[in-house]
Each structure stands twice: as C-alpha cells, then as structure tokens.
Specification:
Largest sheet: none
Radius of gyration: 17 Å
Protein name: EcsC family protein
Order of helices and strands: HHHHHHHHHH
Oligomer: single chain
Structural class: mainly alpha
Number of domains: 1
Helix content: 55-70%
InterPro entries: EcsC (IPR024787)
Organism: Parenemella sanctibonifatiensis
Strand content: under 5%
Number of strands: 0
Shape: globular
Length: 223
C-alpha cells in the first residue's frame, strides 16, 4: 500500500474541486498506464489471466477481490487518525481509492477484450465509477457503459459530462465517505474499521459494475 501512497502524493497533494477534472484525467492515465512502482492495468490483467490459464471470468473475479482488499487496507491506514486527522487524510484516501478503482476497471475491460487506450472505452471506464449507474436519472448520460464503449464514434461532450460527474462525486467524498462513516471517525479505531469496510464495499461494487458492463469480446482461452 506504500506504493499507492507514493503515486498519489506525486499526482496531487490535495483534492481541490476547481482542479478535480484535471486530477481525474491524471488518475485515469496513472491507473491505466501505471506510474512509478504501480504496474499498468494491462500488466495486472495479464498476470491474472496467466494465473487462471486464460479463464476470463476467474481472472475478473480475482482482480475484483485483489483490488477490494487493497482498497480496504488503504482505507484502514489513512483513516486510523480519527476525527481530527480525517480532515487531512481524506483527500489522499479519496485519490488513492480512485487510483485503485480506475486500475481495476481498466484491467477488467482489458481482460474482456477492450482497448483501454481508446477514448470511447475510457469514457465507459469512468461511467463504471459513478454511483449507481443503472439507476442514473441524468437523461444526458446513458445508463449503459457498454453502449458508450462500443459506440460508432467518440462523444467529447458526453466524456466531459461523465468526467465532471465523477470528479464531483470524488470531491464530495462519495465512494465510501458518507455521513455515517465520517461520524464514526470520532473514535479512531472504529473510524479505521468503518473506512476499511466502506472503501472495500465501494470498490467491490464498482468492480461488479465493470464486470457486468464490459461483456467479453474474446474467445475462451484467448489472452
């Protein structure tokens, strides 16, 4: 988890709403392409595929399990300080969590046969990060990330809308930092435990969304 901390500190020291779109793009590039000691999403996907002899479903399942575990551990470390420390620790935790989640979603997409360097797919990756995509009420944003990933052309306006929405959720502390979690940080050890569960649960939910949206485009056994 020290690796994630180093990467986050090199990207941005604090989450600021006016710059959140730029931070999100940097996180997207870092999560997909890898940065510093953190391997790329493609490398992570390749290792899991190799470990499971090309079984796509098992590779996706272990990718979700691994990143859920990492997210939970990171949440525990950054939330141990309790209520006072949370004011400082929250931005790094939000960014670190987003980095892990972007990497996980991109790895799942790669396992399923999508080009994660393609702009349409990148928009779809971000859509999987949104809270409750399937119940989205915004008529300007499709409820299906798959339809965006496989659209005939890249939609720049849609990409900006999705980016703004995800960045807004990050800045607001969505992704496991709701009121009940924040209140629990008044007790340091309880705050750490709740942070672990919340970050892990959110990451697992995003992973399952990605697994559902990015249906396989590969033949069984194909890497």
């Amino acid at each position: 988890m020290a690796k994630v901390g180093k990467v986050v500190s090199s990207l941005v020291p604090m989450m600021a709403p006016p710059a959140s779109g730029g931070v999100l793009r940097r996180l997207l590039d870092a999560g997909i392409g890898g940065v510093g000691p953190l391997p790329s999403a493609k490398q992570a996907a390749g290792r899991h595929l190799q470990h499971h002899a090309g079984d796509h479903d098992r590779a996706v399942a272990t990718l979700i399990a691994q990143h859920t575990s990492l997210a939970g551990a990171q949440g525990f470390v950054t939330n141990l300080g309790g209520f006072a420390t949370a004011i400082v620790a929250l931005p790094a935790n939000v960014l670190g969590l987003a980095l892990l989640q972007v990497r996980m979603v991109a790895a799942i997409a790669h396992v399923r046969g999508y080009d994660v360097d393609e702009p349409r797919v990148r928009t779809a990756l971000l859509m999987c990060m949104m809270t409750n995509l399937s119940a989205l009420q915004d008529e300007d944003i499709p409820r299906s990330a798959l339809s965006v990933a496989t659209a005939p052309v890249f939609d720049l306006a849609l990409d900006r809308q999705v980016s703004d929405r995800v960045a807004g959720e990050m800045a607001a502390g969505v992704g496991g930092k709701r009121l009940a979690v924040f209140a629990s940080k008044r007790i340091p050890v309880v705050g750490g435990a709740v942070g672990l569960v919340a970050d892990g649960w959110t990451t697992q939910r995003i992973g399952r969304t990605a697994a559902r949206e990015f249906v396989s485009r590969r033949r069984s056994g194909q890497h």
